[in-house]
Amino acid sequence: MAYPDYLVYGVASSILGYLVVRLSAPSLIRALFKAGLRRPDAHKPGNPLVAHSGGVILFLGFLLSFSLLIAFGGLGFSEKVKLLAVLATSALCFAVGLLDDKLVLKGVLKTFLTALSIIPILVVALTYPAAIDWGRPVVPIIGRMRMTVIYWVLFPISIAGSANVVNMLDVLNGIVPGTALVAFAALAVIGALSGDGLLLVIALVAVAILLAYYPFNAYPARVFNGDSGSLFIGGLLGAIAVVFHLEFVVLTLLLPHILNGFFVVVSFRGLREHREVKARPIRVENGILKASDDPKAPLTLTRLILSVGGPMTEKEVAKVYIAVEVVAAVLAVASYVLTPR
């Protein structure tokens, strides 16, 4: 399919995704709340209850938008296979997250289940290698590498890692969709620079859906993402990294998330479900967030930001995260430009 055709169907799918999320979110938020999917907002006075599992809203938007592309987008067989692999992998991450929203899974089990989400991409890579050039990641300056054996080992981590580091950063209103907006905007730029219409379309759809969803999760949040939302977004980024050979680019985009995840894992000496944390890394006083003085509290990127920058409001901390993600996005695009093809 010609590049301009991608743009036409990409814009149509993006508009559909935006409208679906924007118009359905209010009623879905009420439905989630009534269904008992709600959590206290620990950073607000009085800890008000807020609807949970906003990933349901996000997944609905992506499912309908991608279905439109597959059914009417005029995609070739290879493009359809790639898109289906990305959708199926991220859908499995969504399912794991939704299960965790209801049952509260242990950290190790959740990581293992998200690692299994790589199966759709694995099936495509083995049965239709023309769609995915197996085991050949691309890195700046060096270019395309051949590391088939090592890639087998790292393969599951590509999805589980990206999904769980995004999940670990879902600590304040607006951070996950805000940083994801920047990340997918960077991927759209890379899609345009590379002439990869499918990547551009996927990124445009993601930007549109996140733009529609962001106001509902931004401060003061009307819905929390839940693990269904954060694992879905992280899984989607991981799937794009593998399918489009953008491993280094996505790694760069996730640098803030990875740094936070590193702090958390080191603090806990392993994987731990965030609801198991007893000593909180931050404290709230009259709507102002401050770094915890408790030596038993885990070190997180939020705690580090507050330790260095001093007390802030929740909105101010979210803005810092988005600003850091913008820097990561610039580095990611630069790394792509510096990569020989």
Task: Give a written overview of the molecule.
The chain has 341 residues and is mostly helical. The protein has a domain at 3-31 and 51-245. The chain contains 13 helices and seven strands. It has helices at 3-34, 55-72, 77-103, 107-115, 119-127, 148-168, 175-194, 197-217, 226-243, 247-253, 255-268, 301-309, 314-337; strands at residues 38-40, 49-51, 138-139, 143-144, 282-285, 288-291, 312-313. A three-stranded antiparallel β-sheet has the order 5-6-7. Strands 1-2 form a two-stranded antiparallel sheet. Strands 3-4 form a two-stranded antiparallel ribbon. Helix 1 (3-34) runs antiparallel to helix 2 and helix 9 runs antiparallel to helix 10 (247-253). The longest helix has 32 residues, at 3-34. The chain is globular, with a radius of gyration of 19 Å.
